TrEMBL record:
Protein name: Isopropylmalate dehydrogenase-like domain-containing protein
Alphabetized PANTHER family for the sequence: D-MALATE DEHYDROGENASE [DECARBOXYLATING], DEHYDROGENASE, PUTATIVE (AFU_ORTHOLOGUE AFUA_1G04150)-RELATED
Taxonomy of the source species: Eukaryota, Fungi, Dikarya, Ascomycota, Pezizomycotina
Single GO term (MF): oxidoreductase activity, acting on the CH-OH group of donors, NAD or NADP as acceptor
Domain of life: Eukaryota
The Isopropylmalate dehydrogenase-like domain, residue ranges: 25-367
Recorded family membership: Belongs to the isocitrate and isopropylmalate dehydrogenases family.
Organism listed in the record: Pseudogymnoascus verrucosus
């Protein structure tokens, strides 16, 4: 099984870090559904980690933004809320979405309302087979280790479009994808850097430039331009439909993968399922310029079907917390944390989504114990 994220990758994160103090301010936005259950697990683990290592400290501030706040006050984020996030070093986010609020209202009211103004344009989703998780594919002869990079600020999720002729038989809705040279270039450079930092030095750029003949062709052109600055990175391009086939039939031919907001939203869920469960999939919403704090969150949503039952897999949130540590400059602590998570999973201490019999609190407690035992 693969060990924790490659040291080369961590080195690159280290080079980009700006931390000066060893006391970091972390905002927690657990929000809705299983969000509070998994964020509380991640915070418990982080507290044990810092108490055990004693090399740095984390101060947590809970922000009660979410669908309850919306139902009471008519908005997800209080006035000036996004601006106030600048005082934190990083943000740990749960999930947003409630059964009695339309999903587009909740997503745009909270998560997208932060991602946009803070220009968190790089969504990074590491995907690895975990010990103790089952592989669905017979083609998976060895563990997978992918790094999915999703353009996170424009494309199909730019919010452009509108509705006309409401409730007429000819009611019309448009959803306009926008692709800018600035937006594509910055994410392309980020993905090439990411690929360069990993041992395989392999990047696959995913588009749909056969049928989408404008924005996707611009993506292809910029990929070719930017690649000239990265002669040491091998790169290829795939159409998104063919990409799904390659992920299933030839998973080991992939390493770093880049694509648009919509395409990678879907591809990364498929990747998470192939790796074992959405319950272990982490993500980072990064501002690579570091002008704004980045947001770290599990890929999964509110999971209404298991909310309040105490059975949610906390690994996605805990792995997201490890990604947060790497980003603020505490890569060694992130390694120690992930080694504990892997040891606990390999012992079969896993939740039901991974075929186990343990609940959220038991898995969290096992990870905390492992950190203390192996310090
Ligand atoms: P979902 O990820 O909430 O659930 C999909 C399936 O995966 C469910 O069967 C759920 O029980 C399972 N699952 C998810 N996380 C799990 C975990 N940690 N442990 C064990 N099983 C887990 O996706 P769905 O059902 O499409 O969306 C539910 C709500 O969440 C909607 O309101 C949606 O808009 C929102 N959502 C929010 C996201 C975010 O805040 N970033 C991302 C995805 C969905
Ligand atoms: Mg998704």
């Amino acid at each position: 099984m693969p060990s924790s994220p490659s040291s080369a990758h961590i080195t690159w994160y280290r080079l980009n870090m700006t931390n000066k103090s060893k006391n970091y301010q972390i905002a927690c936005i657990p929000a809705d559904g299983i969000g509070p259950e998994v964020i509380s697990a991640a915070v418990d683990v982080l507290k044990v980690l810092t108490d055990t290592l004693k090399t740095f400290s984390l101060e947590f501030t809970d922000l009660t933004w979410g669908s309850d706040h919306y139902k009471k006050h008519g908005r997800y984020i209080p006035e000036g809320g996004v601006e106030s996030l600048k005082q934190y070093d990083a943000i740990l986010f749960g999930s947003v979405g409630a059964p009695d609020v339309p999903d587009h209202i909740s997503l745009w009211g909270l998560l997208l309302a932060m991602r946009g103004p803070m220009q968190l344009y790089a969504n990074v989703r590491p995907v690895r087979s975990f010990p103790g998780t089952r592989a669905y594919l017979t083609s998976m002869t060895k563990p997978i280790d992918w790094m999915i990079v999703r353009e996170n600020s424009e494309g199909e999720y730019a919010g452009q479009g509108g509705r006309s002729h409401l409730r007429q038989p000819w009611e019309t809705a448009t959803e306009v994808a926008i692709f800018t040279r600035v937006g594509i270039e910055r994410i392309m450079k980020f993905a090439f850097e990411m690929a360069r930092s990993r041992p395989a030095k392999l990047l696959t750029v995913v588009t749909k430039s056969n049928s989408m003949r404008n924005g996707m062709v611009l993506w292809d052109e910029i990929a070719a331009e930017v690649s000239k600055d990265f002669p040491d990175v091998i790169w290829d391009k795939m159409l998104v439909d063919a990409m799904t086939v390659r992920m299933v039939t030839n998973p080991h031919s992939l390493d770093t993968v880049l694509g648009t907001n919509l395409h990678m939203d879907i591809i990364s869920d498929l990747a998470a399922a192939l790796a074992g469960s959405i319950g272990i999939a982490p993500s980072s919403n990064l501002d690579p310029t570091r002008k704004n704090p980045s947001i770290f969150e599990p890929v999964h949503g509110s999971a209404f079907d298991i909310t309040g039952k105490g059975v949610a897999n906390p690994v996605a949130a805990i792995w997201s917390a490890a990604e947060l540590l790497k980003w603020i400059g505490e890569a060694e602590a992130a390694d120690i944390l992930m080694a504990s998570v892997e040891r606990v999973c390999s012992k079969g201490v896993v939740t039901a989504d991974l075929g186990g019999q343990y609940n959220t609190k038991e898995v969290t407690a096992a990870i905390c114990e492992d950190i203390k035992e192996n310090k």
